[in-house]
Amino acid sequence: MLTIFSDAHFMKQAFLEAEKAFDADEIPVGAVVVCQNRIIARAHNQTELLNDVTAHAEMLALTAAANSLGSKYLDECTLYVTLEPCPMCAGALAWSQLGKLIYAASDGKSGFMRHGKSLLHPKTKVEQGIMANECSALLKQFFQNKR
């Protein structure tokens, strides 16, 4: 059941961001940052639009969240992202001291978990799997369209 303030609700919001990326011909990854049950930032991949390899959904969402809070530390925030973050994004999450990371689809090829949870801040909690099938399907569709 999808209720407001649930992990499923917030992941759905991240998925809507991923769909925006898909529509813009970007790799369809979306992210939202939640603090005190309120979305304070939302973003999707914009590497093509910005011609910037660092313009991943997570990086853009972290920057927006830090600006929203007026603090570089996000220790009381949760990041919902449709794909397991890469090592670059995991490093940024560590520096932000993110409180909790929830990602949908695993990324066995480029995801940070290949290197272990040690890339994150030691206090960051991690959960995985909410809407994994839907997020994986969107990514597969995107790459099939490219072939």
What does this structure look like?
The structure is a single chain. With 147 residues, this protein is of the alpha/beta class. It is built from five helices and five strands, in the order αββααβαββα. A five-stranded mixed beta sheet has the order 2-1-3-4-5. A hairpin with a 2-residue loop joins strand 1 and strand 2 (38-44). Helix 1 packs parallel to helix 5. The longest helix has 17 residues, at 7-23. The chain is globular and about 40 Å long. The N and C termini lie far apart (36 Å). The model has no long low-confidence stretch (mean pLDDT 96).
What features would you highlight for this structure?
single chain, 147 residues, alpha/beta, 5-stranded mixed sheet, 5 helices, 40% helix
Concise account of the structure shown:
The protein is of the alpha/beta class and 147 residues long. It has helices at residues 7-23, 47-50, 57-69, 87-96, 132-146, and strands at 30-35, 38-44, 77-83, 100-105, 125-128. It is globular and about 40 Å long.
* Major pleated sheet: 5 strands, mixed
State the end-to-end distance: 36 Å
Portion of residues within helices: 40-55%
The mean pLDDT is 96
Quaternary state of this entry equals single chain
Itemize the secondary structure elements and their pairings:
Blueprint: H1 7-23, E1 30-35, E2 38-44, H2 47-50, H3 57-69, E3 77-83, H4 87-96, E4 100-105, E5 125-128, H5 132-146
Parallel strand pairs: 3-4, 4-5
Antiparallel strand pairs: 1-2, 1-3
Helix pairs in contact: 1-5
